[in-house]
């Protein structure tokens, strides 16, 4: 009979792309993961991993096992959910993925409350951009994702996922104190036509929103600095190098050299939680979503 733990190790290598990444996700050492797969190879009398450059690739036989492993792990998740539901209290491991400002501005209090009220709950946090975190939920890598999207750039929700709105995160324009824009209490999009922008790198939700919004207003934004961290964006604005559109969630203190101005119509991103339908009844998921909404 095939060992579920060894199948889980193989499935993790497939999901994460390497033995090292699989080990990190499972909480094992790379050596332990390699040993599990070596034992599975002996059990099945089949080569499952092949060297490919500095990494490994799954063989065709391994791909077949991965499909079966996914089905088995889904059944195991259903059983775990049923047992936790029977106990009636959040317990076991709950891995949450959250975008950076939520990880900083929302999750610390949420995690502290959940752990404080439910000692049997082992809660883990992974910081990820929404494009990645929702996919991680779909693939069973994490249990719950806190993600965001914008009205003109909605994030697709794959089949098999449930979604709940947590709240709305409004954004403001951050301007150097000496900039002419700082003299106005409220800005409109036409005011930003000649601005030099500090923004997230291409491919992120915030970058896509900025480009689509300003292009819809007839302006091609001049993004001079691609910076992922909002704290770094604040530092660049304080140095007088450009302006930035920064959400209020997790923004933190604003330097004296920076002024905050409203933009009309006010840009806002929707913040929501996502989880697999198969785990919808799990008390840990239900309680985590409740606390997220309550603390918003």
TrEMBL record:
It comes from Streptantibioticus ferralitis. InterPro entries: LysR_HTH_N, LysR_subst-bd, WH-like_DNA-bd_sf, WH_DNA-bd_sf. Belongs to the LysR transcriptional regulatory family. Residues 2-59 form the HTH lysR-type domain. Keywords: DNA-binding, Transcription, Transcription regulation. It comes from the Bacteria. This is LysR family transcriptional regulator. The keyword DNA-binding applies. CDD domains: PBP2_LTTR_like_6.
């Amino acid at each position: 009979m095939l060992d579920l733990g060894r199948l889980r190790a193989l499935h993790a290598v497939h999901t994460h792309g390497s033995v090292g990444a699989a080990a990190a996700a499972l909480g094992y050492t790379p050596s332990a993961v390699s040993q599990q797969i070596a034992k599975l190879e002996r059990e099945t009398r089949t080569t499952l991993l092949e060297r490919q450059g500095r990494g490994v690739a799954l063989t065709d036989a391994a791909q077949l096992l991965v499909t079966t492993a996914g089905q088995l792990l889904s059944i195991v998740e259903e059983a775990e959910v049923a047992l936790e539901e029977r106990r009636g209290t959040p317990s076991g491991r709950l891995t949450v993925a959250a975008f950076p400002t939520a990880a900083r501005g929302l999750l610390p209090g949420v995690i502290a409350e959940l752990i404080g009220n439910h000692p049997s709950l082992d809660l883990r946090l992974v910081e990820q951009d929404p494009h990645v975190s929702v996919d991680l939920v779909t693939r069973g890598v994490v249990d719950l994702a806190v993600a965001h999207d914008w009205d003109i750039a909605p994030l697709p929700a794959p089949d098999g996922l449930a979604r709940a709105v947590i709240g709305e995160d409004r954004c403001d324009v951050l301007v150097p104190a000496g900039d002419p824009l700082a003299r106005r209490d409220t800005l409109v999009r036409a005011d930003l036509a000649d601005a030099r922008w500090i923004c997230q790198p291409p491919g992120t939700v915030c970058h896509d929103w900025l480009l689509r919004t300003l292009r819809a207003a007839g302006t091609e934004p001049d993004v001079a600095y691609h910076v992922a961290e909002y704290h770094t964006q604040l530092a660049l604005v304080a140095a007088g190098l450009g302006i930035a559109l920064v959400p209020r969630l997790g923004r933190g203190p604003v330097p004296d050299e920076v002024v905050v101005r409203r933009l009309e119509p006010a840009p806002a991103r929707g913040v929501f939680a996502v989880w697999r339908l198969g785990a919808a009844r799990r008390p840990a998921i239900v309680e985590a979503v409740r606390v997220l909404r309550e603390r918003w």
